[in-house]
């Protein structure tokens, strides 16, 4: 029997209080720059797109402006598409895949769709390469009323005017080896629960909405991404991260009840991408390219259904 992983903060079986959260926060070190990596790239997009600051995170000495990029000639008669990245700040290709899509491919859709892209929803966590925000809260479980995460609340406010009219929403994520080595044990420790070992899937997969799964939409994305990087196989139980595989590379979650970003709107077509950057079979550029391929395939499929 495997011993439960030891997490060095808190008392096993007891949820964290403010002291434990403060101890955890003190251990988080800046490892990269949101301003240099992300904001600089967004600034260079101003010549072609409308850039807006939709909020600011005021975390002590670390104010983080939150930026979204919009189609310059927004037309309410066109279908609208939302792309989100960096809801989990450590998931690098979500951020840089969104920026790469804007820089290299968004122009292909001018006059066909309105684009709204939030490339880095969680900049504090981006800098610290972490899943949680400053309060040890997971933004991707916080897209709920009275959200405990300022990052999630700001994005919900941005999206609210489009909530019922969006055609597509693609939320860009990664599944990494640190999910198993750090983040799941940390979650168990934070919540005073036991940590059950899991298996990290090797490859790309999608999380659809179990309430509205849109299997043909998901398949179109898988087909496109398979040309860029490999698709994650099911494990011996026919599952990926504990959920039944409903089609190659596809699982479903109840996105709204779980407070996931993919449930932030009532878009007709919704999906969450999951790239595996730690695979020996994938490079960082392939991961970015896979995210871009997913966004493009999602938009192309939705437009084709529009006729």
From TrEMBL:
InterPro entries: Peptidase_M14
Catalytic residues, chain numbering: 274
Gene3D superfamilies documented for this protein: Zn peptidases
Residues covered by the Peptidase M14 domain: 30-306
Keyword Cell cycle belongs to the record: no
GO molecular function: metallocarboxypeptidase activity; zinc ion binding
Family per record: Belongs to the peptidase M14 family.
Protein name as annotated: M14 family metallocarboxypeptidase
Species this chain originates from: Novilysobacter ciconiae
């Amino acid at each position: 029997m495997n011993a439960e992983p030891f997490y060095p903060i808190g008392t096993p079986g007891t949820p964290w209080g403010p002291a434990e959260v403060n101890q955890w926060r003190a251990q988080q070190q800046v490892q990269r720059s949101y301003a240099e990596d992300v904001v600089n790239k967004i600034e260079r997009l101003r010549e072609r797109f409308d850039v807006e600051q939709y909020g600011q995170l005021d975390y002590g000495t670390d104010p983080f402006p939150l930026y979204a990029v919009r189609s310059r000639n927004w037309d309410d008669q066109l279908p609208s598409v939302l792309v989100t990245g960096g809801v989990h700040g450590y998931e690098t290709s979500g951020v840089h895949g969104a920026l790469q899509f804007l820089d290299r491919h968004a122009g292909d859709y001018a006059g066909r769709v309105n684009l709204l892209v939030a490339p880095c929803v969680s900049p504090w966590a981006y800098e610290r390469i972490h899943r949680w925000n400053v309060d040890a809260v997971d933004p991707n479980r916080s897209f709920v009323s009275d959200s405990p995460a300022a990052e999630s609340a700001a994005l919900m406010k941005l999206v609210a005017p489009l909530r019922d009219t969006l055609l597509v929403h693609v939320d860009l994520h990664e599944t990494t080896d640190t999910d198993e080595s750090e983040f799941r044990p940390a979650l168990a420790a934070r919540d005073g629960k036991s940590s059950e070992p899991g298996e990290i899937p090797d490859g790309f997969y999608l999380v659809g909405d179990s309430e509205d799964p849109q299997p043909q939409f998901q398949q179109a994305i898988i087909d496109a991404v398979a040309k860029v990087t490999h698709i994650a196989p099911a494990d011996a139980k026919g599952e990926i991260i504990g959920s039944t595989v409903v089609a190659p590379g596809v699982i479903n979650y109840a996105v709204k009840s779980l407070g996931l970003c993919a449930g932030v709107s009532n878009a007709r077509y919704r999906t969450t991408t999951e790239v595996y950057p730690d695979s020996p079979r994938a490079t960082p550029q392939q991961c970015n390219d896979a995210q871009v391929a997913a966004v493009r395939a999602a938009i192309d499929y939705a437009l084709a259904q529009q006729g």
